[in-house]
Every structure is written in structure tokens, then in C-alpha cells.
């Protein structure tokens, strides 16, 4: 690794931290089962992933991937429409791959979590009751049986990297599992609804828009408490609470 003059804190909270030192990312996570999943998922996934440089628990060292993030929630994406199409195609390759050996949460678990998190949002007066109740209704579209596929599980737009129109890497695989394909499509386009058509163009058949919208509502409702308690602001423009308000306004 070339000489560097600073350490960049990419993410830091009580559960884990990620640091960037030059062209190396150091992920510090005391939960080694989560790291086991990340390493194995990157091995199994038929899409570009970071190279594992070394692992000395609780630290995992990964090489930086080329390019830059497809975008960030709360900010307009500067990536080309073709890059978003390519991201959809990459997600399709992942979903067509053999299933990983570990299951993810099912509809029953999401239903229980939804009730718990909505109750917390209402009890703490975080959002208007009408917004919470409307999004709980929209999220109900998710709570149906699905045929499990290999999902990334945390496919935020900032976890997908592109160089020009090419997808160069997908990072942060610790929540990879068997799950609902539309969860990944919704995560990728959360806060970037204007690019949903591009993603679906690359992904192909099988994207039920009502269920994608359901996942936008579900993920935003479930994320609220965690984000608030870990020092993040889901009420920033374009972020999770804006997604919920937009859904409640949509007829």
C-alpha cells in the first residue's frame, strides 16, 4: 500500500466501524458471524466485489473498488442512466445465481418488526400518525410469500460503484441471504425513484412496482429507530422520512 497521510472514517457506530486508509478499507466488526457471511457471500456472488486482502478478527481488510458510488440517499445521482441500467442487470445476475446456504428473514419476521417499529414511531411522536399508518398499509404489499433468491440484503445506492457505464463493484455483503428479489430493487432505488425505470430496464421481468413501493415504505419504517438512535438523521431532505411522506401523499 502506498504511503498515506490520513485515515478516513467511512462509518462508525457502536456496532461496527469502517475506515479507509489509502486504497484499503478496514472493517472492524466484533460480530464474526456477520463477517463470515460477508466473506462467503462475496465469494459466491457472480458480480464484481471487493478483493479480500486479509482478515485478522475483528478486522477485515478489503481493496477499494474502481469508480465511485452510483449515488447517495438524499442527493441527486450523477451516474448515467446507462450505469443504472447496468446496476439492474448486475442485480439480475445475482438473483439468478444459486442460493447461498443461509436463509434470511421471512414475511412473518418482517410483519412483527413492522408492528414494533410503527408502535415506536407513534409512541415517540416521530412522525404524524397518518404518515405511519399509510406507509404501514403500503408496506403490506411486501408481506406475501416469495420465491427466495440470492439477495444482497443491504443494497443501498452507495454500495454500488460504477466507472462510466460499467458496474465495478458492489460492497457491504454482511446481510446477504436468501430473500425477496424486490427487496434489493427497492433498496437500490430508495430515494431515487426517478431511476427505477432504468434499473428495471436492466433487470428485466419480474419487478412488481407495488411491491417495490411496499419495500420503500417497509425499509424506511424499520430504519427510523436505528438511524435516530445511532446519530443519523432520517429526516434530512430526500432521506427515509421524506420517502414515507411521499408515499403517504401518493394516492
TrEMBL record:
It holds the Pfam family APH. InterPro entries: Aminoglycoside_PTrfase, Kinase-like_dom_sf. Residues 24-209 form the Aminoglycoside phosphotransferase domain. This is Phosphotransferase.
Amino acid at each position: 500500500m502506498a504511503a498515506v497521510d490520513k485515515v478516513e472514517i467511512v462509518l462508525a457506530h457502536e456496532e461496527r466501524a469502517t475506515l479507509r486508509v489509502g486504497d484499503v478499507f478496514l472493517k472492524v466488526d466484533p460480530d464474526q458471524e456477520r463477517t463470515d457471511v460477508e466473506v462467503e457471500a462475496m465469494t459466491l456472488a457472480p458480480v464484481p466485489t471487493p478483493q479480500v486482502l486479509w482478515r485478522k478478527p475483528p478486522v477485515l481488510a478489503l481493496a477499494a473498488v474502481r469508480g465511485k458510488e452510483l449515488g447517495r440517499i438524499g442527493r441527486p445521482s450523477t451516474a448515467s442512466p446507462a450505469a443504472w441500467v447496468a446496476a439492474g442487470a448486475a442485480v439480475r445476475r445475482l438473483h439468478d445465481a444459486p442460493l447461498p446456504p443461509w436463509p434470511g428473514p421471512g414475511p412473518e419476521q418482517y410483519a412483527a418488526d413492522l408492528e414494533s417499529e410503527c408502535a415506536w414511531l407513534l409512541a415517540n411522536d416521530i412522525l404524524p400518525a397518518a404518515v405511519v399508518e399509510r406507509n404501514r398499509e403500503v408496506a403490506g404489499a411486501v408481506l406475501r410469500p416469495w420465491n427466495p433468491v440470492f439477495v444482497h440484503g443491504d443494497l443501498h445506492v452507495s454500495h454500488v460503484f460504477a466507472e462510466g457505464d460499467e458496474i465495478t463493484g458492489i460492497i457491504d455483503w454482511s446481510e446477504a441471504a436468501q430473500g425477496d428479489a424486490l427487496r434489493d430493487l427497492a433498496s437500490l432505488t430508495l430515494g431515487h425513484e426517478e431511476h427505477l425505470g432504468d434499473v428495471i430496464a436492466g433487470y428485466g421481468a419480474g419487478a412488481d412496482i407495488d411491491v417495490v413501493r411496499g419495500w420503500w415504505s417497509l425499509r424506511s419504517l424499520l430504519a427510523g429507530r436505528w438511524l435516530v438512535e445511532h446519530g443519523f438523521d432520517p429526516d434530512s431532505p430526500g432521506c427515509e422520512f421524506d420517502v414515507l411522506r411521499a408515499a403517504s401523499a401518493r394516492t
